[in-house]
Design brief:
Number of domains of chain A: 3
Shape of chain B: elongated
Structural class of chain B: alpha+beta
CATH topology of the largest domain in chain B: Alpha-Beta Plaits
Structural class of chain A: mainly alpha
Largest sheet of chain A: none
Low-confidence stretches of chain A: none
Largest interface: A-B, 30 and 21 residues
Number of strands of chain A: 0
Oligomer: heterodimer
Helix content of chain B: 25-40%
Distance between the termini of chain B: 65 Å
Strand content of chain B: 15-25%
Order of helices and strands of chain A: HHHHHHHHHHHHH
Order of helices and strands of chain B: HHEHEEEEEH
Mean pLDDT of chain B: 84
Number of domains of chain B: 2
Radius of gyration of chain A: 22 Å
Number of helices of chain A: 13
Shape of chain A: globular
Strand content of chain A: under 5%
Mean pLDDT of chain A: 84
Number of helices of chain B: 4
Largest sheet of chain B: 4 strands, antiparallel
Number of strands of chain B: 6
Distance between the termini of chain A: 42 Å
Low-confidence stretches of chain B: none
Chain lengths: 400, 176
Amino acid sequence: MKQLVLQLTGEGGLLAGVPYPLAAALAMLLFGAIVVFVFVLPVAGVTSWLERRVWARIQSRVGPNRVGPQGFLQWLADGIKNMLKEDIIPTAADRILFSIAPYLVVIGFIATFAVIPFSSALVIADLNIGILYVTAVTGLVVVGVLMAGWASNNKWSLLGGIRSAAQIVSYEIPAALSIFPIVLLTGTLSMQGIIQAQGWAPWHWFLFHNPFTFTAFFIFFVAALAEGNRTPFDLPEAESELVAGFCTEYSGMRYLLFFLAEWGNLYVIGAIVTTLFLGGWQVPHVTDNPFVLAVLQFGVFFLKSYFWVFIAMWVRATLPRVRVDQLMSLCWLYMVPIAIVNLVGTAIWMMVVPAGLDRVVQMLMTLGGAAIVVGFFGRVRFHLRRAKLRDVDYYYNPII
Amino acid sequence: MGYFRNIKETVATIFEGMSVTFSHFMRRPYTVQYPDRVPIRIQDTLPFRYRGILEVDLEICTGCLACERACPIDCIVIDAVKDKDTRQMVLKRFDIDIAKCMYCGLCSEPCPTGSIHHTSEFEGADYSLESMLRRFVKTPVVAYKPKKGPETDPEVAPILDRGMAYLTDFAAGGEE
């Protein structure tokens, strides 16, 4: 993007004479707007549809399949319906805080897209503190959620907001501690730098770098789910206890914004996980054409990150909600100590293990990862057999 | 060491649970997408004795009023008069108010010919009560008079056979 801006502001360019910093800022704003409206909003919407379809299949149902082909446009119908609804602000609520809270939540997740590297060229701003920026800016979500809970003037909303605050503040610690091993390995906080330190092949990924990063990956993913208020950690919105938690009093557009943030946040989790542990946009060297390369890298990055969105849906359809005390003990008694062990372990690993052994371990780790996947499908096969299904009950079509 | 056992059990049980839910991706959903995406009409899958909306075969109705007397909520109204000249029963009105009917089946039991019977049709929703009043007699018709011996009229015979089969099935109590 820097090259493009330089070309445009240079001699004979479209913006000749415009000072470079101004042109660069304009380009960033424009690209940011494009990312938000062309990418983030549809992805969040489609995720909401896909999530319902995935749950439905897991529960032997069909899910929304009437609006558009296979119900694909359900998210548009839901969005339009919510936008047309009345936006109710309760009389006893704090009007100003109540009104701005959803926007803070949305800003908290949309701002992360500023540093998400979709390809080697497609990134709004390659900050040198990229990953730190992500952790900092997602902290804004807790402000919005707590604000929504308090301003609603409703005991369930307040409880939901406080639970959310406790949860996000707690789980940011294991999440951040799981980022540190990667930062140790790469020596940079820049998202692009972290990706460039990895390769396209699985054994170049930090996921399979050593046993500590492997554990750190799962700790980070679980902590990210908890930060995103996802099941099994969706205590702030626990229907059976708190109605809808902090969004109990919301309706119409503002309610929609909370869910936009929730589903959009899923993609952010996937993107960060991909960047840190799964090699980001790295592709084998196949072409020098910058356009084809950008498309390829974008595709690889999108597929990898969307795979983790799928995993999050699948986890949500599988696991029951944890209790508040279980939530806290899981964080402070298990995840934080293990994350610290990972951090120290990675540091020792870097000092002790020689470069040659490094490669061997990475290969073995990759094989181990493949063995886990194979073992998993073995279990799936076992469960399918144990169900003693008739032939007509097998159904391999992903859509119905 | 309870601590490490907890970690091991957490990982193992989540692994197992995820494999169970994943296996459900390969199973056929049980959902029946009534009414528009069913392989065969639901009406065609129902048993012969299913008590759906009532219907009257006027060709074999004898005008005996047994059904009208049997109806506990008076949803059947029949006007049958004897024609002085021809000495035949003439049906002037045969109305069934589907909105009142409770599908008890008491009317179809005493019917001598199986003329009044339940169909397998159950989609009776409508926007007005008036349209739920089924008027079976449009113009006055002569009631059916049972013959000694088998029915000879080729048009009436199959209807009567159906009605008698219905009655037989009723008497059998559904045991086949």
